[in-house]
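Good morning N.,

You mentioned wanting to compare the apo and holo forms, so I went ahead and generated the holo version with nickel (II) ion. This is what I fed in:
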Amino acid sequence: METLNQNQILKHTRLYIEDFFKGESTGHDAFHTFRVTNLAVYIAKSENCNELFEVEMAALLHDVDDWKLGGDSNLSNAKNWMISQQLSLETINKIIDLIQQVSFKGSKVETPVSSLAAACVQDADRLDALGAIGIARTFAYGGKNNRLLYSPDEKPTFHDSYESYKTKQSSTFMHFYEKLFLLKDRMNTITAKEIANKRHQFMELYVKQFLEEWNFSENY
Ligand code: NI
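and this is what came out, ligand included:
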């Protein structure tokens, strides 16, 4: 069999992603993956990263084994897909390594990256959790998981392990404090930091307005 070139593999992978995420409604749909991919490539180019193919593939496959979507920690879906595309074991391992470094694991859990390529993919996924789209995705995810929008007496919990982060039950609104507002300071690249700052400011405005509306009737 003739080996596929990188452009063909990327094209096939995009189709695989469209199919894979059909019907997904928690904000981890194919459009999320494509936005993350575009951001990752944009960051990689402006940071002069020379592993563009690996960055793009890792971004495309970063959520196919996500725990939130019932995936396993061996990243079987990503691996099997890349094997089907006849990528070399060396390239597959490189891309798997990048995917493993994407996830946010809790407010107090450090998630350092081992390379510029890993930094680009991690930053891209975190950027899509911020701003107007980040807000929409946060509430969509909370609704799907039966969370309240907001619970006035609640205080944020800063999780110190991935396990406790995964089992959290707080209202969706707490997610701003437990994760979203922390992300701008966790960006690895200058390019992502600039984008994150703008999105962060927008979320602050949003949260302020949200609380003003929530408390409106109390003032009369
Ligand atoms: Ni993601």
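The chain has a mean pLDDT of 90.

Happy to go through it together on a call whenever suits you.

Best,
F.
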